[in-house]
Design brief:
Length: 189
């Protein structure tokens, strides 16, 4: 089981919603390259956590609206922005990829123009607001692939153990044979 999941298909990322994009979906130039990815989803859609980890920040931002940040098990920070209402999970709450609902898709914050989830990925809990960020889709796909590689694979070539009975029979057959070995008789000359 991976500690990462992509709960919404990439087809939900509209043109202009990609990471690093400099033009909004309506053609308006962005003031800065896009710092996350936008999933276009109906308002109120529950957002499962993309990662297993822990809620580390719940905050209101004038720009990003209601924000929740989850730290994954490897130290990556995932920001969920424009949530309809404040994340009800307290800081410190453990979350499970694909299972725990972080919040609902909303349209809060001045940077939001219609219901969507803005997801960011960075090296600390402030990267959602400023500083270094990376493409969260690339990051999640790398991690899902890595977890799949590391997951223990059931051996396919393992032969079922031979039933105990035949083994015991073999042992019994061997014992008398050993006992019946006669010492070599010295040939009389
Ligand atoms: Zn965005």
């Amino acid at each position: 089981m991976s500690n990462y999941v992509l709960p919404f298909p990439k087809s939900k990322i509209p043109k202009g919603g990609e990471f690093g994009n400099t033009i909004l979906f309506d053609g308006t130039p962005r003031t800065n390259p896009h710092r996350g990815v936008d999933f276009s989803l109906p308002g109120g859609t529950p957002i499962p956590s993309f990662t297993t980890g822990e809620v580390v920040l719940v905050k209101w931002s004038e720009v990003l609206g209601h924000v929740a940040v989850v730290k994954d098990l490897k130290g990556g920070f995932w920001g969920y922005c424009h949530l309809r209402q404040a994340c009800i999970l307290a800081v410190g709450t453990k979350v499970v990829a694909g299972k725990t609902i972080i919040g609902l898709v909303g349209n809060t914050g001045s940077a939001s123009h219609g219901a969507h989830l803005h997801l960011s990925f960075g090296p600390d809990d402030q990267s959602v607001f400023f500083g270094k960020v990376s493409d969260p889709i690339v990051a999640i796909e790398i991690r899902i692939a890595r977890d799949a590689k590391e997951a223990p694979v059931a051996p396919v070539s393992k032969v079922a153990p031979v039933a105990a009975k035949p083994v015991a029979e073999v042992a019994e057959d061997v014992a008398p044979a050993k006992a019946s070995v006669r010492p070599a008789v010295k040939k009389a000359e």
